[in-house]
């Protein structure tokens, strides 16, 4: 075979491969990373047009500030997918105070660029931080229950993006509408929630309920009253129909009383302290005088409600309500005061 012809064929093949490789390189250029150094925003838009195939609608003056073009710097950005490149584009525009809103119905995608606080006119209004997280830029409505909208608004201003974020106050409905990038909206919502949630304080007035298992609520109330510490101002109310005890007062005091009630109710009732009603007959002297003696003897118990003493002078009887132990004490005391004229106690 002629060597010169073979060499010529090889050279022709090599030239063809180089030509095809050059054409493929032109048809499929390598992606360019968004690395810029004090580059005008227009360079970023050209990069996005090349890399993402997107178009832009904007006012020419929005790319300038004080007669000079807005510039952006970035380094070592390596977005891989189109979604990452789109996010990089939005972040670069954000640094220049520009917000991109996609224009529906046009091939592209096509983005409208809006400068500064004007972006609030195009923002989608959402009602929760979860909805706000689905958008890059939105308007979040926050309804306050307790805090002053004006006070909260003043505190939120530092959380907004300078020159872009905006805030409206609606006093009549206690509502704030905040327009900003979603990460700023989430921060603003957290601050507003903290301002609108009152802190737990010991001097807060609260009401706690307690349903005793071992005693009637009335007797449990009497028991816990005897444990009241000087200076405590809590109040107790009893609902005998539902055997319910309500404790109201300072948060710290109610917590202490609830703990005392739990401890009082933690064990089964001792039969000696089960409530009973006894009738005692006074054979000598006055039933009222005997009742007065018992009332002095059980002064503390009567004050707390755990003991009641009543006298029926005509029938010469005393009705005693209290624990079995107290009833035995009352009976023994009556034996000492209800004596016959000869001085000997009268048998009941």
Mind explaining what this structure looks like?
The protein has 348 residues and is α+β, with helices and mostly antiparallel strands. Helices cover 38% and strands 24% of the residues. Strand 16 and strand 17 form a beta hairpin. Strands 8-9-11-10 form a 4-stranded mixed beta sheet. Strands 2-7-6 form a 3-stranded mixed beta sheet. A 3-stranded antiparallel beta sheet has the order 12-14-13. The protein is rod-shaped and about 130 Å long. It has 11 helices and 17 strands. Helix 2 packs antiparallel against helix 3 and helix 5 packs across helix 6. It folds into 4 domains: 80 residues, Phage tail protein beta-alpha-beta fold (3-Layer(bab) Sandwich), CATH 3.55.50; 74 residues, Ribosomal Protein S8, Chain: A, domain 1 (2-Layer Sandwich); 60 residues, Ribosomal Protein S8, Chain: A, domain 1, CATH 3.30.1370; 67 residues, Ribosomal Protein S8, Chain: A, domain 1 (2-Layer Sandwich), CATH 3.30.1370.
Question: What are its keywords?
Answer:
alpha+beta, 11 helices, Phage tail protein beta-alpha-beta fold, 4 domains, 348 residues, Ribosomal Protein S8, Chain: A, domain 1, 24% strand
Which helices and strands, and how do they pair?
Blueprint (H helix, E strand, L loop, with lengths): L2 H25 L8 E5 H12 L2 E3 L6 E2 L2 E2 L1 E4 L7 H14 L2 E5 L7 E6 L9 E2 L2 H4 L4 E7 L5 H8 L9 E5 L4 E7 H15 L8 E6 L6 H9 L9 E5 L4 E7 H14 L10 E7 L5 H11 L1 H6 L3 E5 L4 E7 H14 L11
Parallel strand pairs: 2-7, 8-9
Antiparallel strand pairs: 1-5, 3-4, 6-7, 9-11, 10-11, 12-14, 13-14, 15-17, 16-17
Helix pairs in contact: 2-3, 5-6
């Amino acid at each position: 075979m002629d060597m010169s012809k073979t060499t010529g064929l090889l050279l022709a093949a090599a030239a063809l491969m180089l030509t095809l490789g050059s054409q493929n390189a032109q048809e499929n250029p390598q992606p360019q990373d968004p690395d810029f150094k004090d580059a005008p925003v227009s360079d970023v838009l050209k990069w996005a047009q090349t890399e993402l195939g997107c178009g832009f609608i904007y006012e020419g003056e929005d790319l300038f500030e004080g007669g000079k073009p807005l510039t952006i710097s970035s380094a070592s950005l390596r977005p891989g997918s189109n979604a990452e490149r789109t996010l990089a584009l939005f972040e670069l525009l954000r640094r220049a105070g520009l917000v991109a809103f996609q224009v529906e119905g046009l091939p592209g995608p096509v983005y409208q660029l809006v400068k500064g606080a004007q972006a609030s006119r195009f923002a989608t209004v959402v009602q929760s931080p979860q909805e706000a997280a689905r958008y890059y830029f939105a308007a979040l409505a926050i309804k306050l229950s307790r805090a002053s909208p004006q006070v909260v608004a003043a505190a939120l201003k530092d959380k907004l993006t300078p020159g872009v974020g905006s805030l409206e106050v609606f006093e009549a409905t206690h509502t704030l509408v905040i327009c900003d990038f979603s990460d700023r909206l989430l921060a603003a919502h957290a601050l507003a929630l903290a301002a609108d949630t009152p802190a737990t304080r010991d001097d807060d007035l609260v009401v706690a309920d307690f349903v005793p298992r071992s005693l009637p609520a009335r007797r449990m109330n009497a028991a816990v009253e005897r444990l009241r510490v000087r200076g405590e101002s809590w109040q107790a109310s009893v609902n005998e129909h539902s055997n319910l005890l309500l404790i109201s007062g300072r948060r710290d005091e109610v917590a202490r009383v609830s703990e005392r009630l739990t401890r009082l109710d933690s064990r089964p009732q001792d039969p000696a302290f089960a409530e009973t009603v006894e009738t005692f007959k006074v054979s000598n002297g006055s039933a009222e005088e005997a009742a007065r003696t018992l009332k002095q003897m059980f002064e503390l118990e009567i004050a707390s409600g755990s003991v009641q003493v009543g006298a029926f002078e005509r029938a010469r009887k005393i009705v005693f309500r209290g624990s079995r132990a107290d009833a035995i004490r009352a009976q023994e005391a009556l034996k000492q005061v209800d004596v016959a004229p000869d001085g000997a106690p009268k048998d009941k």
